[in-house]
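pasting for ref
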Amino acid sequence: MTGRAWLPWMVAALALLAGLATALWRGLPPTPGPAPERPRVSGEFTLLDATGQPVAWSQLNHRRQLVFFGFTNCPEACPTTLMNASRALAESGSAERDTRILFISVDPERDTPQAVGAYVRNFGPAVTGMTGDAAGIAAAAAAFHVFYEKMPPMPDGGYMVNHSAALFLLGTSDDMLEIIPYGATAAEIAAALARNR
């Protein structure tokens, strides 16, 4: 071959070799060694329970739980997520009776301990509600890398809070077992619980 006539053949040969290498790599067994360490929730913060008593994270953690940040005036995302999480625990039966759903408010102005306590009672006994002052809620959100933002007032004077809406599945060592995205059904949450037993 003369000139650059060999170039297409060289490109084809390199592509074939790359494909073979990828196929061989995918067929190899997993590399022996320790599994990668799961991320953990770090930091200390203090919130208020439904009776208004301060509760530190060190008193709430070290148990299997689904943690969700929201607010009691939330029109859809929060009640839907809490209802689906409660149904998932009920459908999972005795295997999940020790799992708690922890609801943490991101609306310190309106979500008093009493308001949060009344709100979570709508979703069954597995749900525990927590609120706090602005600093406590900010520290809790930072520990989970949760975003929240008070939106501008509406014409009636009320307001919404834009916030991360994922469920955080924690193990007993505060390790983050899975982050369940917003919109997960009860069956999908139950499946996440099952694969992280």
